[in-house]
Amino acid sequence: MKILNLYAGIGGNRKLWGDEHEITAVENVPEIAKIYQDFFPKDKVIIADAHQYLLEHYKEFDFIWSSPPCPSHSRTNTFLHAQGLIRYPDMTLWQEIIFLKQWFKGKWVVENVISYYEPFIRPQNLSRHYFWANFHIESKQNDYKATFNITNSRGSTRHSTRDYVDKLEEYHKISLNNIKHSNKRLLLRNCVKPELGKHILDCAFKNKQEVLKL
Length: 214
What we know:
Layout: E1 2-6, E2 22-26, H1 30-39, E3 44-46, H2 50-57, E4 63-66, H3 77-82, H4 92-103, E5 107-113, E6 124-126, E7 129-133, H5 161-172, H6 184-189, H7 194-204
Parallel strand pairs: 1-2, 1-4, 2-3, 4-5
Antiparallel strand pairs: 5-7, 6-7
């Protein structure tokens, strides 16, 4: 199966997909793309604008996963706006959902955070994510907690950056010990939990599901 993994990051969603698929990952930050390639040497990694790559290559794949940038949609915008950070939500998210829904013949999923506004197109809500897909994603709320909440030895959510990174590595089962990057915390926070990524891929092709209409 040919899979397109857009806005790939370091590949949290892809970690448990195995090596039997032909996977193309698109990431526009060379430093991050290199980390992904080191983790998944058999994948084809392309340093490019994922939004444009989708437009030009979508017909070449059987399954497409897209995780467009989420900061402008996050519920943190509520208090950021109150503090003077005024910005539009990035419409890349909605462009890709509409485009895939209308034109792509295979299975697809678009992932993003739970937004501060009412979504224009109804998502499936799983863990701390919204998912738009043309297949049903079975609920796994007991396995993928709605909030990521780690505590230190005193039971507090306040902790050092190093401790936080350690906890995130444990949570995602991804080690960055041999990786040089200025913000490992952000790399890991941007990951979809690997078990959730595998669950969604499994759901896409379980029993040849009928395509859902959004």
